[in-house]
Design a protein that fits this description.
The complex is a heterodimer of chains A (about 180) and B (about 625). Chain A is mainly alpha-helical. Chain A has 7 helices and no strands. Among the domains of chain B are: about 200 residues, Nucleotidyltransferase, domain 5, CATH 3.30.420; about 110 residues, Substrate Binding Domain Of DNAk, Chain A, domain 1; about 80 residues, Substrate Binding Domain Of Dnak, Chain:A, Domain 2 (Up-down Bundle), CATH 1.20.1270.10. Classes of the chains: A mainly alpha (about 180), B alpha+beta (about 625).
Chain lengths: ~180, ~625
Amino acid sequence: MKSLDFQQDFFRLFEIPPRFAIDNAALDQRYRDLQSQVHPDKFSHLSESEQRLSMQWSTRINEGYQTLRSPLARGRYLLSLQGVDTQEETNTAMPLDFLMQQMEWREALQDAIEAKDMDALDVLSDNNRKETAMLQQQLGAQLDESHDHLAAAGSVRKLRFLEKLAEEISSAYDELDP
Amino acid sequence: MALLQISEPGLSAAPHQHRLAVGIDLGTTNSLVATVRNGISVVLNDEAGSALLPSVVRYFEDGGVQVGITAQAQQSVDPQNTIVSVKRFMGRGLKDVGEVIDLPYRFVDSPGMVQLRTVAGIKSPVEVSAEILNVLRDRAERSLGGELVGAVITVPAYFDDAQRQATKDAAKLAGLNVLRLLNEPTAAAIAYGLDNASEGVYAVYDLGGGTFDVSILRLSKGVFEVLATNGDSALGGDDFDQRIYCWILEKAGLSQLDAKDTRLLLTHSRAAKEQLTDHVQTQITAVLSGGELVDVTLTRDDFYAMTQNLLARTLQPTRKALRDAKLSVEEVKGVVMVGGSTRMPQVQRAVAELFKQTPLTNLDPDKVVALGAAIQANVLAGNRSADDWLLLDVIPLSLGIETMGGLSEKVIPRNSTIPSARAQEFTTFKDGQTAMSIHVVQGERELVSDCRSLAKFELRGIPAMVAGSARIRVTFQVDADGLLSVTAREMNSGVESSVTVKPSYGLSEGEITRMLQDGNQHARDDMQARALRELQTEAAQLLEAVDNALQLDGEALLDAESQLRIRNSMEALRGVVSGSDNSAIKRAVEALNQATVIFAQARMDRSVSTALKGHNLSELEG
């Protein structure tokens, strides 16, 4: 049997097919099985080298799980395996209608914060969630069916925008919480 | 070569010795120690039959130390030398310690952590905590009849890196081998979860004497997965006492009390708070040192009104934890109450209202954390197969780095499952810049000045380049105790610098050694002898671990030569282990650790493959 490679990709590590559409339940189960074998709690009475290795493996499995569990991170990761850089920091060219909608939503967020309007936050959060789900579906089709990497990278960039907005909405909730 | 002990395959060399391990709840108000005896987790009592050790330490001029109930009884007599609630000062600077004015101590500001001036000299909160742990260790060793292999020490889930490190230092100072720092709500969940074989999402609401935590966990098929945690590491029952104390001052028209009267009224305040759990009103009567009589009546309604905003400060983090876990109140199957302060009726009512269900209180809220910690200690010490369950915990606060403009760039976000690592690349700001200062911070706020500063270190020797062309990769690694270490590396040249995040607040190894050697280790065993015994215990454990591993996997994973090399190192260690040469034992332990690196690697690979068994391995070969 081949020794397991620390560098092997996360799909191989979790033994799931390298696709955007994945079986979350299978991923969860595999994650637990793997952690049950390597977690530092299983090695605390063993030698120093085993403890160190266990921490490295457990860390790696956590990283892989986070990457594959999040649709955005998974999409980005699939593209990186294909050698495609999603240019999320550098490429700011976005379709105009998408940008317009983002600006509207950001204004709505500011208004909701100033008016301390929790209901408005709920609406915004809901819209953002729906748009995110729609884009994720699109990204799935681009990655798994049409194999259009450029379009997929564009979807990843859009999803990153939406994720940032979701983070801002979340801190707005924290701020408005009595 | 000496003869090796050979036993039947699959059997261990000696009948498995039960390794003595304990769980310790180092609380703000009370501390406890528990252990697993005949498969059941039990709290160990002192000789007088009490389980709770008041976390109170009194120092005497001759260097003597009193811990627990006797010290507590004298706190109004000798307030400046009798330290209560020291947990609030762990890993905290003077400016962090709120409401200092109303505490009867002589604080000494010092870099990183505040210190306290006593008749026995200046004491760090780490030393004070070590005194408490020391009493518990003695209690456990006496009650169990032997040296402890190690202890699981619990910490509030919301403790930051500085507070965790301080706790670990205190345990080391008390001569304890820390098997793990375990979050208090998680410990409580173990005690509850294993008792009730529960499945589903649970919230743990833990209001102690000085800290508040809330954790949201998912329990399924023996996996305890913390989804989110939140809290306030400076909020607890003590604050409720303070509110009553301030009310008394106002009501009785008092101001500027001396240390003794302050402590006296604080003690009365706590008693009044406890009274109001079962009564609708209580009388507070005290005679101050100047002869003035304080005699006031406090009603439950007034008490609720004056502490309402404290309660609100627990509900906000609770809602936040639910949002972080992306769950609604309806999805929470049960709420576990932990900590003595959850006995207050207004707390139970508010929690019930928020979660729309009656919280669980069937385990003693004062003991549940220690009981859970003992169960985990038993597993970590290797007494039972750890296959039974798995704990997946998180870090409570984001870890980041200061970037230009005093902003914090988050490297590991809060609620990341530990152990966790993340690398991020940074670059130089000026042409020809050859050094970079790395400032590690913890907290959610954007401005570095609003976050906790954990450490500053420098990466030097960066080759002079145009601004923006150096590539400095900073790697954060958080271990299973939630403790951080940081490495920085310039990618073009390979220049490297690393730090275990400690210097700017914690104690260096040297300082701990000095404290251990200091005369203030009153009436304690000869430290040298103790260190030797610990080393021998560690060596014996290592020998046993390697021996077991060899018997199980030696033939399958190693060739004859590698096996021989390991056996030789084991023999070398066996040859020195019962002697008294500390450094010879250390060297032999180190050599054996070195000799088993490849073996450990092979075993780990096999473990990972085992987890994937039943799947087509040829898929992996690809």
